[in-house]
C-alpha cells in the first residue's frame, strides 16, 4: 500500500479538527482529515462529540422539550388552548437524529467543497518519516498518510465515577442521556454542571422527577455569584431538585433501576433510587489509540496533550487543539484554535483570545457570560463598578412572556472598560455576542450605553445594564 502525501493531516473531525482542515485548505495546503466516528449504519459521521452527542443533539432536545413545556403551561395564557397534548418521544428523538445527520452531511459536503481528503477510521502515529510524520488509518479506510504538519483534535470523553462504569442503559453518559427512549419517572443526575443542568432540564420538561446531586457546596461556582443564585432560584421554581454538597458513595445498578448512596450537606446518609442515572462530572481528554508514545508526544499530568499558548506540542510541526488540550471544553474555543493553528502553519499570526470566550448554558432561562465575574474581580483586587437591569422591566421580554433574570455589567472603576458581562434570561446566548464584540474592541460601558438599540428588543436590557453602571437606567 503506497503512502499518501499531504501538507497537513488533521486527526479528528470535531469542531476543532474539521474547522482547522477547512482553514488549512483555504490557505492552499493539501489536507487530509481522519475521523473514526460512525453513525448507526456504520457510515462516517464527522462532527465529533459536538455534532453527534453534544452541542447539536442536546440543543435539538432542549428546543423540542421547551416547545412541549410551553404548549402545556404557557400557551393558555396567550389564548391558545391545546386539547389532548401528548408527547411523542419517538418522533422527538427522530427529529434530533435528523438534525445530527444534517450536520454530519454538511461537514462531508464542506470537505468536498474544500477538496479535503476525508478518511473514516482511527488514526495513529506510525513514526517520524521524511520531513514529517506517518499516520496510519485503520477502519473503513486503511491507509498510511504522510504530512509535514499534524493537527491533533481528538476531543474528550465523559468521565466515569469509580465503580460505576457507563452502561448507557441505567448509568448514562451524555451519549445515553440524549437517547432515553421512555421518559424515566425518576431521573438522577450526578454533577450540576453544564450537562447536568441542560439534560436535567430536558427530562424534567418531558415529565421526569429530576434530582441533581452536586459535590460542591455552591451551584455553578464559575458563574458570577449573583447570576448563579438567581438561576438556582429559577431552577428550583421549575421543579429541578438540586442538592449541593453531596458526597457520593456506592452506586448499585439493579435490574431496572439504580441506587445511589450519598451523604448530604447536613451529613445525613441517604439512599436514592432512580430509574436512570446520568453522570456528568466533567470530561477527560481523548488520546486513546493515537500511539503518542511512538513519536514521543508529551502529555501533561492530567492527560491533556501538552501545548504552549500557540497550540504547539513538544514535537516540531505537531499541533493540538480543542478539548484534548488545556482551556475550556467548548466547541467555539476548539474552532478558534483550529483556525489559529492553520494560520500559523501558513506563517500568519493566528490568535485565540481566551479573555473573550463566551460561555452559555442552554437552560431556560439561558445563562451566558464573558469576562470576569464579580467574585474574581474582588479576589484580584480590581476596582470595578457594577450595573444590572432586570428583564422584568423590558417590554420585549414582557411581550414574550419571559421576564426572568437580568443583564449585569462589570466595568473598570477608573477607565470604564467592560471587564465582564453576565446574563441570565431569555436568549442570553444571542445577547452575549454584543458583549463579546464590545470587549474585543476594549469598549467601555458608556460606549454600549450610547449605542442605539432597537425597540422593543431584549438587547435594550444590555444597553440599560450598561447605563446602570453609571446609575442612569431609563426604564427602571
Ligand atoms: P470532539 O468534538 O470530541 O471531536 C473529536 C473527534 O476526534 C471525534 O469525532 C472522535 O471520534 C475523533 N477521534 C478521536 N481519536 C481519534 C483517532 N485516534 N483517530 C480518528 N479519529 C479520532 N460546547 C459548546 O461550545 N456549546 C455547547 O452547546 C455544547 N454542548 C455540549 C453538550 C454535551 C452533551 C457535550 C458532551 C458537550 C458539549 N459541548 C458544547 C462541548 C463540545 O462538544 C466540545 O467542546 C467540542 O466537541 C470539542 O471539539 P473537539 O474538536 O476538540 O473534539
Ligand atoms: P462540568 O465541569 O460542567 O460540571 C461537572 C459538575 O460535576 C461540577 O459542578 C462538579 O463540581 C461536579 N462534580 C464533579 N465530581 C463530582 C462528584 N464526584 N460528585 C458530585 N459532583 C461532582 O462538566 P459536565 O457537565 O460533565 O460537562 C463537561 C463539559 O462539556 C463542560 O464543562 C463544558 O465545557 C462542555 N459542555 C458545554 C456546554 C455548553 O457550552 N452549553 C453544554 C454541555 C457541556
TrEMBL record:
Superkingdom in the source lineage: Bacteria
Molecular function, one GO term: dihydrolipoyl dehydrogenase (NADH) activity
Cofactor needs: FAD
Disulfide bonds listed in the record: 50-55
Biological processes per GO annotation: 2-oxoglutarate metabolic process
Location, primary (coarse class): cytoplasm
Family matches, as InterPro entries: Class-I_Pyr_Nuc-Dis_Oxidored (IPR050151), FAD/NAD-bd_sf (IPR036188), FAD/NAD-binding_dom (IPR023753), FAD/NAD-linked_Rdtase_dimer_sf (IPR016156), Lipoamide_DH (IPR006258), Pyr_nuc-diS_OxRdtase (IPR001100), Pyr_nucl-diS_OxRdtase_dimer (IPR004099)
Positions bound to FAD: 59, 154-156, 323, 329-332
UniProt EC number: 1.8.1.4
Protein's name according to its UniProt entry: Dihydrolipoyl dehydrogenase
Gene name tied to this protein: lpdA
Amino acid at each position: 500500500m503506497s503512502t499518501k502525501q499531504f501538507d497537513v493531516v488533521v486527526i479528528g473531525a470535531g469542531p476543532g479538527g474539521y474547522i482547522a482542515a477547512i482553514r488549512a485548505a483555504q490557505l492552499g495546503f493539501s489536507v487530509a482529515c481522519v475521523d473514526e466516528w460512525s453513525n448507526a449504519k456504520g457510515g462516517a459521521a464527522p462532527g465529533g462529540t459536538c455534532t453527534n452527542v453534544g452541542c447539536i443533539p442536546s440543543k435539538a432536545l432542549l428546543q423540542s422539550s421547551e416547545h412541549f413545556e410551553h404548549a402545556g403551561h404557557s400557551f393558555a395564557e396567550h389564548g391558545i388552548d391545546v386539547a389532548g397534548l401528548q408527547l411523542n418521544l419517538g418522533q422527538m428523538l427522530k427529529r434530533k437524529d435528523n438534525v445530527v445527520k444534517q450536520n454530519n452531511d454538511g461537514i462531508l459536503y464542506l470537505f468536498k467543497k474544500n477538496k479535503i481528503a476525508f478518511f473514516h477510521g482511527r488514526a495513529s502515529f506510525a513514526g517520524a518519516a521524511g520531513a514529517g510524520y506517518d499516520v496510519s488509518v485503520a477502519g473503513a479506510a486503511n491507509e498510511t498518510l504522510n504530512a509535514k504538519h499534524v493537527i491533533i483534535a481528538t476531543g474528550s470523553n465523559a468521565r466515569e465515577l469509580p465503580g460505576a462504569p457507563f452502561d448507557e442503559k441505567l448509568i448514562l453518559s451524555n451519549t445515553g442521556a440524549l437517547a432515553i427512549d421512555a421518559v424515566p419517572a425518576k431521573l438522577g443526575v450526578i454533577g450540576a454542571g453544564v450537562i447536568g443542568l441542560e439534560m436535567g432540564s430536558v427530562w424534567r420538561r418531558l415529565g421526569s422527577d429530576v434530582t441533581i446531586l452536586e459535590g460542591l457546596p455552591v451551584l455553578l461556582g464559575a458563574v458570577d455569584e449573583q447570576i448563579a443564585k438567581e438561576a438556582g432560584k429559577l431552577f428550583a421554581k421549575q421543579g429541578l431538585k438540586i442538592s449541593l454538597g453531596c458526597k457520593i458513595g456506592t452506586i448499585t445498578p439493579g435490574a431496572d433501576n439504580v441506587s445511589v448512596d450519598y451523604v448530604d450537606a447536613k451529613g445525613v446518609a441517604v439512599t436514592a433510587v432512580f430509574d436512570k442515572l446520568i453522570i456528568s462530572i466533567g470530561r477527560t481528554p481523548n488520546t486513546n489509540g493515537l500511539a503518542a508514545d511512538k513519536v514521543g508526544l508529551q502529555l501533561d499530568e492530567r492527560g491533556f496533550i501538552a501545548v504552549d499558548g500557540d497550540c504547539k506540542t513538544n514535537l516540531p510541526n505537531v499541533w493540538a487543539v480543542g478539548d484534548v488540550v488545556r482551556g475550556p471544553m467548548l466547541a467555539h474555543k476548539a474552532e478558534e484554535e483550529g483556525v489559529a493553528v492553520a494560520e500559523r502553519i501558513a506563517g500568519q499570526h493566528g490568535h485565540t483570545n481566551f479573555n473573550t470566550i463566551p460561555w452559555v448554558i442552554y437552560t431556560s432561562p439561558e445563562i451566558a457570560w464573558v469576562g470576569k465575574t464579580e467574585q474574581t474581580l474582588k479576589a484580584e483586587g480590581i476596582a470595578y463598578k457594577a450595573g444590572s437591569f432586570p428583564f422584568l422591566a423590558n417590554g420585549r421580554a414582557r411581550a414574550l412572556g419571559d421576564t426572568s433574570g437580568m443583564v449585569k455589567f462589570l466595568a473598570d472603576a477608573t477607565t470604564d472598560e467592560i471587564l465582564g458581562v453576565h446574563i441570565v434570561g431569555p436568549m442570553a446566548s444571542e445577547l452575549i455576542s454584543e458583549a463579546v464584540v464590545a470587549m474585543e474592541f476594549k469598549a467601555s460601558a458608556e460606549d454600549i450605553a450610547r449605542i442605539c438599540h432597537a425597540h422593543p428588543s431584549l438587547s435594550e436590557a444590555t444597553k440599560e445594564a450598561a447605563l446602570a453602571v453609571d446609575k442612569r437606567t431609563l426604564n427602571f
